[in-house]
Amino acid sequence: MGFGDLKAPSGLKVLNDFLSDRSYIEGYVPSQADVAVFEAISSLPTADLCHALRWYNHIKSYKDQKNSLPGVKKALGQYGPAGVADATSSSGPAAASKDDDDDDIDLFGSDDEEDSEAAKLKEQRLAEYAAKKSKKPALIAKSSILLDVKPWDDETDMAQLEECVRSIQMDGLVWGQSKLVPVGYGIKKLQIGCVVEDDKVGTDILEEHITAFEDYVQSMDVAAFNKI
After folding, report:
1. pLDDT < 70: residue spans in the chain
2. Rounded CA gap, 139 and 113, in Å?
3. How confident is the model at residue 95, as a pLDDT?
4. CA 24 – CA 170 distance, rounded (Å)
């Protein structure tokens, strides 16, 4: 297992393909697996690697909470698709734990070990998550949302823009139909529908993820919002 060399375009391409149908490296919540892979990357994924870029920006938002994320960091060779070997040099947390290499780059800042309070918090979060998944509510509140996603200009690749938007995957989100709507001067906006579970996905988090594709997206607006 592995991603090849995560400091090279080839490794980032493997990561992008791996995340095409996943929100995280392991499981359904951010964990130390995401931290380990994030710290091994030396540069921001390019816009054409939309799945990797979406994941990178999301994990970066946990900068101040990295030690409290659940799980235990493992060697990079224990993550990723089968049949691909890890070839990343100075593999971030794995190298630091084995070789005590002070020169390893830590994109998060300090690399303090998880203390007892963080361990307790991790166990509490895992317990809460398991309890939440085991519940079967009688009614799940859902909403139908229509989004307007505007490009920068008439030269923006709208097919790539839509692919980036649809690459956003999370529990409680289902993408629907879409169309291009003229807005003037040869520019078209992407109008795309989705159905969300209200307690899991909101318009604020959708806007955060969509506008992260800043090479393609100028802005996002809610065109319609209806309870189901």
Report:
1. 90-115, 133-138
2. 42
3. 41
4. 9
Break the chain into its structural domains and give their ranges.
9-78, 142-227
Residue 47 bridge partners (DSSP): none
pLDDT of residue 137: 61
DSSP 33-66: HHHHHHHH--SPPPTT-HHHHHHHHHHHTTGGGG
CATH 3.60.9.10 corresponds to the domain 142-227: no
Quote the crossing angle between the two packed helices 50-60 and 9-18, to the nearest 10°.
Answer: 90
| Neighbour-count burial for 198-223, b at 16+ CB within 10 Å, e otherwise | eeebeeeebbebbebbebbbeebeee
Q: What size, in residues, is the chain?
A: 228
Q: Which of 100, 102, 88 is nearest to 6 (CA)?
A: 88
| The pLDDT of residue 107 | 53
Cα–Cα distance between 73 and 40 in angstroms, integer?
Answer: 12
Query: Would you state the pLDDT for residue 158?
Result: 95
CA angle 151, 208, 187 (to 5 degrees): 10
Classify each residue of 140-157 as buried b or exposed e, where b means 16 or more C-beta atoms within 10 Å of its C-beta: eebbebbbbbbbeeeebe
Q: What is the pLDDT of residue 135?
A: 66
pTM of the predicted protein model: 0.48
The pLDDT of residue 213 is 96
Helices and strands (DSSP H and E) totals, the chain: 7, 4
Alpha-carbon distance 152 to 157, whole Å? 10
